[in-house]
Amino acid sequence: MKRAQFIGISIAGVSALLAFVLVKGMLNKPTEEKRVEVKVNSVQVLVAGADIGLGQVTNEGSFRWQEWPADAAKGFITDKSNREAMRQLSGAIARAPILAGEPITPAKLVKAGQGGVLAAILPAGMRAVSTRIKEETAVGRLILPNDHVDVILIRRLRGKTGGDEYVSDTLFTNVRVLALGQQIETKEGKKSAEGAANTATLELTPRQAEMLLLANSLGEISLALRSIADLDPSNRGPGVGEVLNKPKDGNAIRLLRYGVRSRAMGVN
What we know:
Layout: H1 3-27, E1 42-48, E2 63-69, H2 85-89, E3 93-94, E4 109-110, H3 117-121, E5 127-132, E6 148-158, E7 164-180, E8 199-204, H4 206-218, E9 219-225, E10 239-240, E11 252-255, E12 263-265
Antiparallel strand pairs: 1-2, 3-4, 5-8, 6-7, 6-9, 7-8, 7-10, 7-11, 11-12
């Protein structure tokens, strides 16, 4: 091989090697990450610093400020609208359970001096009325606050023949139980009301409240627990059942005196 040819081949080989190294370096070069910062218009929103239970009295430590998109902060308490909100809401009562990090709205809290816990959770226009209960008339005391029940009145009437007739009237349907005794919130893991509560407080309209108080003087009130599958999704409140002056030939049991065997009439 001539010297000129050898030099040419050597130069070509070196050039090919350099080209290979350069190409390999370009292929293995890490891709540069480009970060584009998009500035979002945000505000500081007042949220719950920890879980706040129904009826719990709050303090300044119950709240904190959290960054929130300004477009989604409508109706919330912001640092721009009220920087002193923590201090002002200290001592307020929760009208409903509030989860940690959930934005605070004025409707979720009632300030001290505006009523007690029960008045705070009672919807506008409704009344809280209590009625006597016992184990056999309240589903074995397994009814809990926020359950829905039907209210049934059992009363005794004097028949034309001198016998006693026991009549059942469904006064109201789909009634929310506000409290059992003084328990207004279901404790985690509890399957029944605490203690031996002998009263149930129900959420009724003003007219229904009058009817229940009258019914308490006429006979015995029983509560029939409703399934959660039957709850009214439109939340239209309690319904009215049968009126108190229901005809006697309805759901009655007639008891005949003087040793004559009793017989049932019109029992469904």
